[in-house]
């Protein structure tokens, strides 16, 4: 894939040492949707609680989603303050002048708009508007600086094919609680499923046959098992079948075959359980 079409995944440090995968660019989020990756919008305003029902950017990805996107050549990682520092060091004096000119142009447009708005308000109250007596300090304090949610400069300065990308991928992969889950995710994506976190339905993933805005999910997929070593007792099968029936989904178990060093391989088998005559 052309490097210019790859999306940027920011690994934001938090409780996880490897970072939380986030996507901030609206255009990148649209691309992800077209590629069968929905993610979860998490952006909110702490000062406006009612806004929590209508979340916005950034889009949070599951670790498996981020790994698959980079592994498929559709995305790249960036992280750490050193990335921002390196990008800032590439700025030239002329680029800084252009940025200041754009900012001053924005301020001029805001001043004009606010003066017109104030004049209309005064006219509606029948009070003559004297521009010379208008409070300059109050006007200047109401101007705002628009901060973009993404930086083209950062994306342009990252070596998307470097050893650093592989290092970040391995670190994120090793941070998985169950590395077999990545191969389960990858196998389902190869069969064109949309996948989302499945905790609310008692699984690792929930699988949709298409875009979640158009379809209900069909399967709740359990955390990956070692195909040759992990047991699956009858009680698990019965409780899983009951759970699947309760949420009107197939209860799916995935077995990942491991090599001698217990490293997962891309050999995944799926088994579905449901109660006959129900649902």
Automatic annotation (TrEMBL):
The active site is at residues 208, 216, 249. It is an enzyme of class 4 (lyase). Gene3D superfamilies: 3.40.1350.10. One of its GO terms (cellular component) is tRNA-intron endonuclease complex. Residues 182-261 form the tRNA intron endonuclease catalytic domain. GO terms for molecular function: nucleic acid binding; tRNA-intron lyase activity. Signal peptide: none annotated. One of its GO terms (biological process) is tRNA-type intron splice site recognition and cleavage. Keywords: Lyase, tRNA processing. Residues 17-76 form the TSEN34 N-terminal domain. CDD domains: tRNA-intron_lyase_C. Its EC number is 4.6.1.16. Constitutes one of the two catalytic subunit of the tRNA-splicing endonuclease complex, a complex responsible for identification and cleavage of the splice sites in pre-tRNA. It cleaves pre-tRNA at the 5'- and 3'-splice sites to release the intron. The products are an intron and two tRNA half-molecules bearing 2',3'-cyclic phosphate and 5'-OH termini. There are no conserved sequences at the splice sites, but the intron is invariably located at the same site in the gene, placing the splice sites an invariant distance from the constant structural features of the tRNA body. Heterotetramer composed of SEN2, SEN15, SEN34 and SEN54. Interacts directly with SEN15. Belongs to the tRNA-intron endonuclease family. This is tRNA-splicing endonuclease subunit Sen34.
